From TrEMBL:
InterPro entries: Bact_StressResp_Reg (IPR051932), CHASE4 (IPR007892), HAMP_dom (IPR003660), STAS_dom (IPR002645), STAS_dom_sf (IPR036513). The chain crosses the membrane at residues 20-40, 282-304. This is Anti-sigma-factor antagonist. Residues 401-512 form the STAS domain. One of its GO terms (biological process) is signal transduction. The keyword ATP-binding does not apply. Keywords: Coiled coil, Membrane, Transmembrane, Transmembrane helix.
């Protein structure tokens, strides 16, 4: 299977084009989908965050509305002459009429605190709206001058203070105003503080107003991961959101305590509808693009197969049936006005030209063969004549090429001319040994001045000749050796210990005749 695939891809134009088109389609799809993925994801995240910010803003307005409602109640009571007189006179009638349980129910508050100018508690009461009775006042309210002194400071008489505080184990929404006369004139005789406990009733009202599933909790009771998000971003913005998973987006509205630290956290957990819809939209578009790409690719493959691959395959089949020796007997049977038809026509013309060229080539080859046969016959005749001449020359040279010249009664000289091969060296050895025996010579001078080339085997034979001369009681002198002859003698590893060597023939004769 793998071999068939490799042959299809590497040896087939169809395979190469198909692979190229598939790669192009994948690149185009990726080029389209990657930016689309970024755009859709960014848009869905932005829309999701924007929607969460809008929801959180509604939650913040709802909680601020609770604080503003309490502040309005405090303002109405703090700028009343009877409240102004109560701080000095401490009349029980004022307490009975304005701090009874019905007033708590009417105003929907659970704490009332009156302080004088020094911050000392004049009156304090807390109320449990579920049990409909008074309860113990938290310690922080009794010592409010130490725990929350900011509530008692009023730089401007026409401004109050609202905040979230922790008293005991509960969170409270507090509003404080300076106690003034009915025409809002001072000096201030103290501070009036109303408080609303952050309980389920507050949560239900906020959910009803915002139509959102809001949860109010103490910052200390949050999970560590949520605390980290709130603490990191609360100082920069009071509305923060974070997706802790792919299904739910959580938003936080942070209300700091009077000292600026995170205290009341409104948590809103909503399903990531926009993000999930964005993901679905992206995959839907990706599917459409993929299907469209596949359909386009299949259509392109069909068009290529119909108009290019099939005609090419037909032409290749016709070309395979053509006999190279008889190209005129087969033609490509394909006619079309397009480039492939022009290609088939051009190939047929080339086949016709090839047939003509082959006929001309066959005629030229026949003529050339005849000439070659005639030339070969003449060459063979010339070679035979040259061989006969060479044989005669060799016989003549064999008789005259090795002259042994008696120089004196005991000295023989043999000048060598031309090329010394192994056969001539053997004849040289035979001639010298016979001459020593015939002339009773004691010295043989072998002159190498006229030698043009000395084969290595011939050099070895010369060394053997020198040894044979020594065995006959004579000595061998070499004269006239040139550098190339000397290199051959050295390469043959001849023992030159018993051979006298002289540069010239004259020097050798003088040494032999002494």
């Amino acid at each position: 299977m793998k071999v068939a695939y490799q042959q299809y891809v590497h040896k087939s134009v169809r395979g190469k084009i198909s692979l190229a088109l598939l790669g192009i389609m994948l690149i185009v799809v990726l080029v389209l989908l990657i930016p689309l993925r970024y755009i859709v994801n960014s848009s869905s995240l932005f829309a999701e965050q924007q929607e969460m910010q809008d929801h959180l803003e509604r939650v913040r307005r709802a909680i601020n509305s609770e604080l503003a409602q309490i502040d309005a109640l405090v303002l109405s009571m703090a700028t009343w002459d009877e409240s102004y007189d109560f701080i000095n006179q401490r009349t029980p009638t004022y307490i009975e009429e304005n701090t009874n349980n019905e007033i708590f129910e009417l105003y929907n508050v659970q704490a009332m605190l009156y302080t004088d100018q020094n911050g000392t508690i004049v009156f304090a009461k807390t109320y449990d709206s579920q049990q409909r009775k008074s309860v113990a006042v938290p310690f922080e309210f009794f010592d409010i001058n130490n725990f929350y002194p900011q509530l008692l400071n009023h730089p401007q008489l026409d401004q109050g203070t609202t905040s979230v505080v922790r008293a005991g184990t509960k969170l409270w929404l507090l509003a404080a105003r300076p106690i003034l006369t009915s025409d809002a004139q001072g000096p201030s005789r103290g501070t009036l503080i109303y408080g609303r406990m952050v309980d389920q009733a507050v949560v239900d009202r906020i959910n009803y107003q915002t139509l959102l599933p809001v949860e109010l909790s103490d910052y200390r009771l949050l999970a560590p991961t949520r605390q980290q998000v709130v603490s990191e971003l609360a100082n920069e913005q009071r509305l923060v959101s974070r997706a802790f998973n792919d299904d739910t987006l959580e938003g936080f509205v942070v209300f700091p305590s009077i000292d600026g630290k995170p205290l009341l956290v409104a948590t809103l957990a909503l399903p990531r509808t926009i993000y999930i819809q964005g993901e679905r939209t992206f995959w839907l578009i990706a599917s459409v693009v993929g299907i469209a790409g596949c359909l386009g690719l299949l259509s392109l493959f069909w068009a290529l197969r119909r108009f290019i691959f099939y005609p090419l395959t037909s032409m290749v089949g016709d070309l395979r049936q053509i006999d190279p020796n008889q190209p005129e007997q087969h033609q490509i049977n394909f006619a079309s006005p397009d480039e492939l038809g022009l290609l088939a026509k051009t190939v047929n013309q080339a086949l016709d030209s090839l047939a003509v060229a082959q006929r001309e080539q066959l005629a030229a080859e026949a003529k050339r063969s005849a000439l070659q046969a005639e030339m070969l016959q003449n060459q063979q005749s010339q070679l035979q004549t040259q061989a006969a001449l060479l044989e005669l020359q060799e016989q003549s040279l064999a008789e005259q090429a090795l002259p042994l010249i008696p120089v004196s009664r005991e000295v023989l000289a043999m000048p060598l001319i031309g090329q010394i091969d192994f056969n001539r060296a053997e004849r040289l050895q035979t001639t010298i040994l016979h001459g020593i025996e015939t002339y009773r010579a004691r010295t043989v001078i072998l002159d190498l001045t006229g030698i043009s080339q000395l084969e290595q085997r011939a050099a070895v034979a010369l060394g053997q000749t020198a040894q044979a001369v020594q065995l006959l009681g004579a000595r061998l002198l070499l004269t006239g050796a040139n550098p190339s002859i000397a290199e051959e003698i050295v390469a043959a590893n001849i023992d030159l210990g018993q051979i006298a060597i002289y540069q010239t023939l004259a020097a050798g004769m003088q040494a032999a005749l002494r």
